[in-house]
Every structure is written in C-alpha cells, then in structure tokens.
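Lab meeting minutes (informal)
Scribe: AK
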Amino acid sequence: MAVKLTFTVQLGDDIRRIGIPDETLTYGELLLIVEEIFRKKLGSRDKIIIKYKDEDGDLKRISDSSVLLFAIQHNQMLKLKIFPGVGNSRCGSRNNK
C-alpha cells in the first residue's frame, strides 16, 4: 500500500513518523494509533490530548474528526504533540462521542 498521509507524533522527547495509506483518518482511529505507539508511556488512566502545529507554529487542539481533517488539509507535514493527563478515563474512541 502506498502512503498517502505522513505525520510526526511526539510524546515528550519520543518522536515517531507515521505513514497512513488512507487520507480519511478519523479522530478515533488516530487515538487508537497513538495509544498503540505510546502504550508503554501512557498510563491506563491517562486522558489523551492531541494538538497540531499550524502554519504559524501555534498549537491547536484536535478534538474530533472535522478538526483532524482540517489539519490534514492545511498542513503538508502534520506535526502532532500528545499531552497525557490524569483523568477518569481515556478520551479514546471507547469513551468519545
């Protein structure tokens, strides 16, 4: 499969480059990818917050699939930062609406 979407994902000082064969990545799928990649660094109660750097270098929160699609469409190389925090549960696809 050819890679159609490439982005970097950073949690602390750990930076990974990810290739996705489909540009229709959903927010829930992105959360699952992040959980898989950083499972050893994330606690079971960590709430995952994902932000991307926009064209001005500002960090913007990705809260759903529409924001993710906008970020993908407006950034050639999407750079994501993961911010874990302690919460009652993950903000992943299991609990997100």
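Next up, CB showed the second protein from the same session:
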Amino acid sequence: MTDRAGRRRDSTRRESDRRDLGAMVHPVLRLLIAVELPILAAHEVSMWGYSVLTALDDGPVRTQATLAEAIGADKTRIIGTLDELQDAGLISRTPDPNDRRARLLEITDEGRRLRRAVRAEIRAKEESLLATLTPTERTAFVRALEKLSALSPEDLPDRGLS
C-alpha cells in the first residue's frame, strides 16, 4: 500500500524512520479546517467566534483577558470578534463591578444554541474521518489528542516546545 505521496507504507517501519509529528498532523488539521469552514460560514460565525463561544459555554471564562489566554489569542486582537458576537446577540459584555476597566463575558442562550448546533455538525463530519480507523485506533487516537492538547510548554521537562 502507498501513501498520497506514493511512498510505500510499511507497518514494520522503525520509529526513527517515521515522519515528524507536525508533518503528520498538518494534513489532518488542514482537512478538519476545510470541513469546518463551510459549517461556520453557514452559521455566520468565524473560527475565532466559535472558539470564543466554546470557551464561554464550556466553563467560567469571565474576563476578556482570561478568555484570550484560554483560547490562545492576544486580548487586543479578539475585541473585533467579541464586538461581532455581541452585535449578533451571542454574548454579553458587562463592566466588572470590581474593575471598571474589565468586561465580564457571558454566552447568551442564542450563543449557546448556535455553538451547540455548530458543534453537532462538526462532530458529524468528524465521524467520516474517524470511521477510517478501527474502534481501538479511534479510541487511542482521541485519547492521545486529548492528552496532548492539554499540554503546555511548561509541562515538558526540557520545555522543548517553547
């Protein structure tokens, strides 16, 4: 069997001969983005907007600074996204009574409904990708991604990702 580049796949290939993780993950990421973008466009929300709604729906992210850190964005660069989401009635921003310079963020019922509809459509498309794996591979792949995606550079002994 060969891969997309015409190289022979060999299940007995040594670990040292495998491609770098980034080289393997990148095509999968491109595929996932290509699948997600039309869904996001149909719901009139950007990838950053969806990230914001997800962070606000999944847990107590209260301020813009906390939100930016949670989604890996610069706090000054997400203001436009927050404006769009607020104008669409998907989030609310209110002054923090303890710090007038800060804004408290909250997802609205409409934002929660939109986020969950988008997530359901994305998950349905992900099923096509995951269906190419055996049940054992699928479980291991998802668990490994969950574990790796929770890491930060500080979690690594040699800080190799920083």
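CB comment: The chain is about 55% helix and 10% strand.
No objections, moving on.
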